Structures are given as structure tokens and as C-alpha cells.
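INFO  loader      accepted 1 record
INFO  loader      residues=542
INFO  predictor   begin
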Amino acid sequence: MTTLDVTTPLGPESGAIEALSELRKTRLARRLGNMSVADAAYRVYVTALLSVLAILIVSGRVGDARLDAEAMGQFVADVPAWAGLVVAVALFFGIRSGERGGPLAVEAPDVQHVLLAPLQRRRALRSQTTRLLGRFAMWGAVIGALAGDLAVHRVPGSAPPWVLVAVLFGATTGLLVAAVALLVAGLRLPRLVTTGVAAVVLAWAVADVSGRFATSPTTVLGRILVWPSDFDPLALIPVAVAVLLALLATRAIGGLSIEWARRRTDLIGQLRFAVTRQDLRTVVLLRRQLAAEVPRKRPWFPHLRGRPAVRFPVFARDVASFARWPLVRVVRVLVFGVIAGVALRAAWSGTTPLILGAGVVMYVAALDAIEPLAQEVDHPQLLSSYPWPRGVTLFRHLPGPAAVMVIAAAAAVGATQLGGVDIELLEVAAVALVPAALAATGGAALSITGEPLLDIGNEALVPPEIAGPQALFRAAWPPAVATLGFVPILVARSVAGDGEPLTAAVNAAAVVLVVVILVFAWVRYRQDIRESMENAVAGGAR
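INFO  predictor   done
INFO  writer      dumping C-alpha cells
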């Protein structure tokens, strides 16, 4: 190994970057030395293949009707603004990530040694920055391809052009978000300035959606999605801007804060391990630490006191937790509700797969609302010390989160009217409000309180062909329960024009409530059932 003089700056001719690259490759090889890469890759391959096949099969079986000429004209007019709003929201979160040193997660040895070495920091981080930009663009392209595959079942014309423009839009959005986040992290601009710019871009995109303007840069980028029907070369400008910002980000990253990089590296390492272990609770906690979320010192409203607090101590504890939510969490839950409402409006208009998006968004919001129950699960010894069964405590934690989710569902119901007043949809959505809130709460409770209903056992003995679908089932089961809450809207849509949509929605809501009751009962009696089964097995063994 070449000995380097760390007392003098190193120039490009020194070969320091090449030596650093070799060191990183060696470290990676040693870290993977005892790991069965083939088995891990095969498991990922099986899971990814099944996921993609499921999406393609479902999208092909939906059977949504194609848009007529009038509806297609409205589609071409509205999609750029809505797509621009999606880009603006993504940029907002990207800027917030950059303010905290993200999205680049530098490895611990690099933070400790390389970033403190007499070497140009931007050159030392160039390869990692380039890979990050590529990953964001790749995942954006993948998401765009899936969205394009869903869209081709409704829009007229050949499928490949619509998929290709969706891929271009997704890749550009991913590259733009990563580049902006890296620029914010590297330049270390005042947070007031960056947050203000993000808010202005977001407000501009909202104004475009409202129909008052059509000038937002993100809306111009959204015009890519309608190129097969209405080609606009101006949409290439945001693509060029994204590439330019990516090039600038590779130079500006040299100003990355070492303190933020060290903190982010520690948290990202724990987060990756938690994801590997499918520990959703730890993932949620680490995400909040990355976002620097801390409880409010002064509550939003007073706690329950007196007789109500004594009679309902668990509910009073939940209320105290909600009263100290930081503002960003309150806004996040409400925004998720609005997103779910927009997806429901699109599903009611004929794009059935978006009902899954609404369910997943409500499920993610419920993971915030279920926090008091999750804290009980985090302290098993304290939970076992209460003078009543464990399941009773968990069950008593459900009303509080359910009430919060009712508020989020109410925001979703209101958001269904953003595209224009539709009384029939409003009535049907109001019927689904409570079932949707309870289903989202039940799905989040399933993911927090323990394993799903099917548990194969020791994962070390499970072959990859089974481990992949098992992991997929564990991840998909709770969001599927949350999505059930919106089934009444699909049922009502199926009879609209030929029957009574409101009556059909009420009947479907009753069925959903029965399922929710079973889920809540599982949370209450899960531990009792497991203990009874273990005792029966132990008795049979004797």
C-alpha cells in the first residue's frame, strides 16, 4: 500500500482517489465475506419477480374503461398540474432532507478518516454521490414505468409511448430531487431560505392545480406525461435543469457537514439493519430521528384530568401523547389524508388501482397515530406488570388512534371534492369514513403488535422460494387490511347509474366493519391464543 503524507494536500496526480477506491472495494469484500450473496440475491430476485408480476397481472385485470375524447381532453389539461404537484411535494421533502445532511449516507470509516483527510472532499465523495443520483433516477424510472403500465389501460393509443414518457418523467423527478437535496446539504444555506423556497414552489404548484395559473416549473415538467397526445418541447427544459443540478451537486457536496454526516451514518446503519429484520417499529423511530422530530414542550390542548383520566387511564395517556405531537407530524397526517382523498377521486373516476394507493397512504398515517400502542409494545416488562392481560392494554390503546384516523379520513373525504363538487361521491365517501379510519388503525396495529396470522417459523430453515413470498406477505398484509376500508367506494361505483350507490356503500361498509372487529379481536386475544396453543403442545409432549 502506498504511504501518503497527510501533512500536505494531495493533488490529482497523487493517486489518492485510486487508492481510496481500492480500500473501499476491499472493505466491501471483507464485509460480504461470510455472507451467502447467492442466496440473498436469489431471495431478492424471487420477491421482486413476484411483486412485479402481481402488479402487471392486477393492472391487466382491472378492466377500467378507456377515456373518450372529452375525458381525454380533460386528462391532457389536468395531468401536468397534478404531476407538477407531486414533483413539488417530492422536492419539499428532498430539501428538508438536505437541510439535515441527507440524502447521502457516508460510511462510518469515510466519515472518520476520509472526510478529515487532506483531500478534496468533493473528489472523495464523487463516486458515492454519482451512485446516489443514479439510484434516485433508477427508482424514479421504475415507479414511472409501473404508473405508465397502469395508465395505458385507460388512455387511447399505443402503450409504449405512454410508458416511455412516464419513465422519463420518473427518472427526471428522481434525479431532480436527489440533486436539489445534495445541493442544499453541500452549500449549507440558511434553513429559512431553503424552506422558504420549497414552500413557494409547493404553493405555486397548488395554484396550478387550482386552475388559477399554469406557469409552475414543476407543471412544465409534468407536461412530459402527455407528450403522446400533446407534444410540448418546453418540457425538455426541466430535464436539462435536472441534469445540470446533478452535475453541480457533485461539486457542491464538498461542503457536507461532518457532524450531520456522522449522525446520519449512524442512523442509516441502524435503519438498514431494522429493514433487514423487518422491524417496522424501529424503522418508524429511526425515521423520526432522521427528521429530527421531537415532542412539543407545550401541548396543543390540555390533558384529560379528574374522573375521565381515572376511569380511562389508557385513553388519557393516548390523548397526552397526541397533545405533544410536533407540527410536522400533524401536517404529515393531514397531508396523507388529502393524498388519499385525491386518489379516491381518481379511483371513483375509473382508475381503480389508485384505491391501493389510498389504502397505503392511510396505513402510513396510521403508523403515526398508533404511537402510544407502539410505546407499550416497546416496554414488555412494564406491559406485563399491569393488573390485567396484555391484550386488554393493547385493545384499550385502539380508540385514541382510531379517533385521530377519523380526522385524517375526514380530510380525505374533503379532498375528494378538489376536482369539482360530486355529491354522490361525497355521500359514498362519508359512509366509508369510519370503516376506513378503523381499517387503517387495525392494519397499523397488526404490524406493531406482532407477526401476522401466518407464521412459518424459523427463517434460517426456510428455502428462498418460500422466504421471498413469506416476506412479501408480512409486508403486504397490514396495508391490505387498511385498504379494505375503501372497498365501499368501489362497490358503490360498480352500481352507479344502475342502482343505489349509497345503499351498496352502506352494505359494503357493514362487511368491512365485521372484518375490522375481527382484526381488533385478534389484537386483544392474540397472546391468549398463542399461550393456549403453546400449553396444548407442551401438554401433548408430556
